[in-house]
Amino acid sequence: MAARVSLTKNQQKVLEKLEVATGPLSAYTLLDQLRDEGFRAPLQVYRALETLMKDGFVHRLESLNAFVACSEPHDHSHHNHRMTAFAICDTCGQVTEISDETIGKQLDDWVGSTGFVAKKAVIEFRGTCAKCAAIAA
Fold first, then answer.
1. 22: which residues sit within 8 A by CB, 6+ positions away?
2. Is 39 helix (H, G, I), strand (E, B) or coil?
3. What's the CA gap between 34 and 8, in Å, rounded?
4. From the DSSP assignment, how many helices (H) and strands (E) are in the chain?
5. For 57-80, what is each residue's pLDDT tens digit?
6. Does the annotation place 92 within a ligand binding site?
7. At which positions is Fe cation bound (predicted)?
């Protein structure tokens, strides 16, 4: 993983927006939020996001076509970027990142038993977070 100090100005600005966001952001939402900081084209955001994802600072939520900052971008001892799961609340939009090395290994072994070599797995759980469930009860 690249060190945060090696990020370009655009990458740093995109990452900062994602880190303070209360939920996932689309590339176009990021562009709108960054226009006052010199961003003019979607390509600027997409290039920054591509590098941030490659370097493990950001995750893409496939079902939402949106992005979140990694909850543990520098903790490789307890965090597996090859197998990440997300719990996404359909009520409030909260996203909780979940990573478990043991479960990741089991999933690698399971898919590997078919002869398939997985590069990455993203699992998204949709439902209701504890806070929203308590309010609804």
1. 93
2. coil
3. 15
4. 5, 5
5. 999 999 999 999 998 765 544 556
6. yes
7. 78
